[in-house]
Amino acid sequence: MAKPSKALLSTIGRPVRDEYRREIGQVVSFTVNPYGHVDEILIKHGDGRFHYYRSDQMRVNGDGEVVLSSGFKLKADALCEDIPLIWRKDQVLDGLLKDERILPETYKCLHQEFSDELKKLKSEAQATMDRIDEQLHACAELFRRLHSAKTYLEIEHAIGEVDGDSYKESLQTITDGLRCAVDERTDLEAMKKRLSNLLLGEAPEIEGTPPVEESPEEEPATEEMPPALEEPPQPTEEPDLSEGTVPPQEPTITVHGVGRFRPKPKSLV
Question: In what order do the strands lie in the sheet with 58-60?
Answer without folding.
Answer: 50-54, 38-45, 23-32, 15-18, 66-68, 58-60
